[in-house]
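Field reference: "sequence" (input) and "structure" (output). Example, MFS transporter:
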Amino acid sequence: MLSGVTQTTDSAVTERAPRRRTRPLMHRAWIVAAVTFVTIIGGAAFNSLPGLLIDPLNTEFGWSRGEIGLAVSLDMALYGLTAPFAAALMDRFGIRRVVVVALGAVATGALASVWMTASWQLLLYWGLLVGLGTGSMALAFSATVTNRWFVARRGLVTGVLTAAGASGQLVFLPLCAWIVKDHGWRPASVTVALAALVVIPFVWLLMRDHPADVGLAPYGGAYVEKPAPVTGAAKRTVRVLFDAARTGPFWLLAGSFAICGASTNGLIRTYFVPSAHDHGMQITAAASLLAVIGVFDVIGTVFSGWLTDRFDARRLLAVYYALRGVSLLFLPMLMAPTVHPPMVFFIVFYGLDWVATVPPTLALCREQYGEDSAIVFGWVLASHQVGAALVAFLGGVVRDVTGSYDLVWYAAGALCATAALMALVIRRRDTATAVTL
């Protein structure tokens, strides 16, 4: 009788044993972060190509640079405007589904452009589809992954994922430039489509929406149940926008960050290569210079974060914008058929300053808007892309009318001076922790 009880108890223990989980050598959060990193690198590849297509499309179809710039501007505007809502969609439908659909939209737009014959198709394929797709894989994607999967090392992961965009630009810009130069723009567009399609299986198989999906706690934190799908996040996103729009600091932050986008993505990323080509520089050489910006972008962003912890964010922004404006005023004089030391100095400096504005801008959003700061920053980021979109369109128009991009560089330099003044007049809400330069 006793032996029977013992046998039953041993059997029960044996049945329960397989349910015990041994601690994995690597937390699943790092795998999810790695997939996110690769996906963001791919997103940078998708955004690298439009600037390389301006001259080939103008030559083949006779489309004006203004028409082509309009499609690029739509892409940039949607990249920013989609971001605040992408997080809401991820809360409602899950990270995997949203990112897979976004990658599918990018692949469809890039592949369909191979057969386009009219400029409105460029607006549809590269402007609408690619813009919506890449916007869904912007900062909202990395922020959602970081917030769900990490408690410890959250700052490190955020920095690495932010750097992924620069890494993607570094990898894909020279490659796409070589393809465009030696094989034409269509193979380059197909390459972008294939890159998006290749990433989809990795996202679907390795990405998970929440640590609870695989029975884990976030890295460095305690186990929490997976929250129910959120249906009101989009409404809150809009409400926070209306509340912030009633305050002066929001418009100063949004306006200065719009100028930041105009002088980086809208101007340098879109028109540096065709402008250098106008002065006789090979497309591959110009694209390689642009890729170098991505290297120093990482260094500048990290250093700017360190400075933001120690100095007044308003004064940092003023210094960044002022120096950027001065450098743009000198750029037309640096354009030449070959790469020379002053141009290399400009590239290094501009790389250090490229997104150095992000840490102090985010710090000011936190200071002014507290728990709503992340959403407010999402809308400020949207203004960044709207500014980029306007300059991407107007830059092409100026080139069509004047035959040169010089006026665009000078105008952008003046705008940066305006942004420096806007940063200085943002009111201080908490002076206790401010440190002067």
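Residues 1-22, 430-437 have pLDDT under 50 and may be disordered.
The radius of gyration is 24 Å.
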